[in-house]
Each structure stands twice: as C-alpha cells, then as structure tokens.
Amino acid sequence: MPQIELPNADTSTITLAEAMHSRISQHAFEEQPLSIASLSQILKNSAFSENASHRPYPSGGALFPIEIYLLVRDVESLSPGIYHYRPDVHRLEFLWVLSENLELDVTFDAWVTSAPVLIVLTAQWSRSWNKYNDFGLELSLLEAGHIGQNMLLSAVATNACGCPWGGFNEKNLADILDLDNEREQVVYTIALGPSISKASPN
Ligand SMILES: Cc1cc2nc3c(=O)[nH]c(=O)nc-3n(C[C@H](O)[C@H](O)[C@H](O)COP(=O)(O)O)c2cc1C
C-alpha cells in the first residue's frame, strides 16, 4: 500500500493543563482543510510508538487490539480517501479513494459530514481473545477511550477540535472500511477538524 510520511514538527502552543481545561466537544469546523501538521501531531501524540511494547496509551495485557483508520475528506496535501495509521512508523497507508457516493449513515448526526476527518477506531479481537475471551471487548472499549482522549487533547493543542461520534452505524462503517466483522469491529469514532477562529475583540 502507498505509504505517506507525516511531518514531525510540534505545532502545539499550549500546555497540557490548558488543553485539558479548554477541551470541549465541537462539531462546527472552520471551513478550511485540517492542516497536515495538526493531523500528524494528533496521531503521533495519541498512538505513535517506536517500541512495540509501549504506546502513549495503556492496553490490557499490552496486546494493543485497537487499529486507527481515517476517512479523510479535507486535509491539506492528502487526497480524499480511506487511510490506515501505522503507529510503528508514524505513516499513513492509503487504502482507497473515498467514493463520491459514499453512503455514510449519519441519520442522527448530519454534522458528521462536515468533518474534514473521521477517525474510526476498530478492535481486532484475535489479539486479545486467547488471553481474555469476551472480556477483551471491555478492555478494547477502555483502550479506545484512552486513545480518544489523547486525540481530543492533541487536537485542542494544535488549534483543531473534535467531537466523539457515538451515533455511528457499525455495519455501515464496517462496509465502508471493508472489515471482516468476525475479526474486527468498529468501537469508536471521532470527528476532527480545524477550530473556528475566535472573533478578535474590537
Ligand atoms: C462515547 C461518546 C459518544 C458521544 N457521541 C456523541 C454524538 O454522537 N454526537 C454528539 O453531538 N456528541 C457526542 N458526544 C459528545 C458529548 O455530547 C459531550 O462530550 C457532552 O455533551 C459533554 O460536553 P463536552 O464534551 O463539551 O464537555 C459523545 C461523547 C462520548 C464520550
């Protein structure tokens, strides 16, 4: 699969405490592409790992069942499409072009279609099944929450914003990502985009 290098520059302008206290769920985005620097930093802070046994989030049994996919609509220097993040090398893998008649089911949340990126976290059951059986589901949901919080805080730190989307249609997203539902299941999604600039005081 074509691999896309991501920039490494740290563009955050605020402290961790500031990011934590200013995080809110936002689903109105500035009408411009999300910068590649911001997306890169969100992914790097959330999941990059040079060491196979350590990541920026905890994982039950260190089995790391969560995979990160991106539905990219409008990101600087990326073609619209479906991508997969490789946390070991901090690269995106381009999977395929976003179909023009992509039928993302947003029945309850039309705002999702305006998000420049939809992050989709999936759980690969086979990684935790041998050790945890059904308990692996709970562990992977908890793990996805840790990754999600990393993403939301990193978004705030890079002048972006996001909103978890719990109203996704699991089958619809599995079809879009062409997942084998026996082995891999969508567990969490987060919409991300550039934050709307605050009007300067007159
Ligand atoms: C697991 C989860 C799923 C959520 N799903 C949605 C959603 O589908 N649509 C939405 O507008 N907000 C969603 N939210 C955001 C919550 O509405 C929001 O976190 C809550 O109102 C508190 O506001 P705050 O995040 O700005 O502090 C979700 C939050 C979580 C944690």
Q: What is this structure, in a nutshell?
A:
The protein has 202 residues and is α+β, with helices and mostly antiparallel strands. It has helices at residues 16-22, 36-47, 126-132, 135-157, 170-177, and strands spanning 3-5, 66-72, 81-86, 91-97, 117-124, 160-164, 184-194.
Q: Main attributes?
A:
about 200 residues, alpha+beta, NADH Oxidase, 7-stranded antiparallel beta sheet, 7 strands, binds flavin mononucleotide
SSE order, one letter for each helix or strand: EHHEEEEHHEHE
Spatial order of strands in the largest sheet: 1-4-3-2-5-7-6
What class, by secondary structure content? alpha+beta
Bound ions, cofactors and other small molecules, one mention each: flavin mononucleotide
C-alpha end-to-end distance: 51 Å
Count of distinct strands:
7
Fold-level CATH name: NADH Oxidase
Return the CATH class: Alpha Beta
What do we call the CATH homologous superfamily? Answer: NADH Oxidase
The portion of residues assigned to helices is 25-40%
Q: What is the 3D shape?
A: globular
Number of helices: 5
The radius of gyration over CA amounts to 16 Å
Can you describe this structure?
This protein is of the alpha+beta class. The longest helix is centred in the last third of the chain and has 23 residues, at 135-157. The protein contains 5 helices and 7 strands. Residues 24-25, 27, 109, 163-167 line the site of flavin mononucleotide.
Helix and strand topology:
Layout: E1 3-5, H1 16-22, H2 36-47, E2 66-72, E3 81-86, E4 91-97, E5 117-124, H3 126-132, H4 135-157, E6 160-164, H5 170-177, E7 184-194
Antiparallel strand pairs: 1-4, 2-3, 2-5, 3-4, 5-7, 6-7
The chain binds flavin mononucleotide.
